Hints:
about 25% helix, 8-stranded parallel sheet, 8-stranded mixed sheet, Urease, subunit C, domain 1, 21 strands, about 400 residues, alpha/beta, TIM Barrel, 9 helices, 2 domains
Amino acid sequence: MAAASTPPASAPAAARPGTSAAPVGAGTCTVLAGGRVVLPTGVVDGGRVIVEGGRIAGAAPEGATVVDLTDHWLVPGFVDLHNHGGGGASFTSGTAEEVLRGVRTHREHGTTTVVASTVTGEPDFLARRAGELSELVEQGDLAGVHFEGPFISPCRKGAHSEALLRHPDPAEVLALVKAARGTAKMMTLAAELPGGLDSVRLLADHGVIAALGHTDATYEQTAEAIDAGATVATHLFNAMPPLGHRVPGPVAALLKDERVTVELINDGTHLHPAALELAVRCAGAARTAFITDAMDAAGFGDGAYALGPLEVEVKDGVARLVDDGSIAGSTLTLDTAFKRAATVDLMPVEDIVRAISANPARLLGIDDRVGSLEPGKDADLVVLDADFTLKGVLRKGAWVVDPRTA
Length: 406
């Protein structure tokens, strides 16, 4: 929590980034002092965050370790709603060890909370996969499971296998939700397909986010789906009809409805800066969520990959299907999305924090624990330098990237 700009007189000399100091961890208290702290109420210059026992504390005891983060930003850890993998690992098909490698890769880039997204597959396979991923949710490594497909439109399939697509039968939708054993957080579907509206209602009734995406819906069909309980637009603009002045399509319905949060992939490839600006202006900071839609290559590099059964080539950081050149997810990490939002899109830092931390945490129903820097919440935070380059990552009070040695 931000407080006075100077540490208490009893505190020891502060450790500058790059110097040695006692680590943050269980049983210790550390004051991260002197930075620009982004709180729900605004930015506090020369503020401090007190970390004790893995959580943010309201006060520091005598003799607490002080880390001087003057000229740095302290922001909440990032929360990624939509992520298919990273570090060379797929959340859809990787072993538990590989999934954890992907999670670690994103943590090193500031994402302290990640939802594992699957891609289209046979329902039995996805049900088994949901059960496997749920174990990692239960042990605290993932925040939930997101099913992207198979209940999407073949007209807007993107990097999903058309042969595996299905209409959203509510019975099959419910089977996947149950297979996740309470860890299903979101499902992307095309509500205009037969069974779509009933499936949206079912998801809403079971506390699972119904997200509209990979859809060929009209404006009217989209509005009907929102009335049925859909609350998220999966990577707005991508894999849906474009905005038109006579045929506005789903984009207009999703942007104008106050009940909908819009996902945006801010990598400079998926969206022109003007499209991103339009979305943020229309939806406002309260209804914007930055995501990665990352695939295996995030944090790993160019090369040949697989996305479900489809072959992908990553070149110059852009992932495309080998057979038709469609964009196949991204190689984005959220620290890059943050920096781009601040330096290219010129968004206020407080709005970026809402889009990259607070809003996703709220959607997932975990904003009592993460998403903002407040006493009692998990000590998840990111340290950025004055140019918005990542210098430190703290998760549950332990350094993933230590700013004192970075």
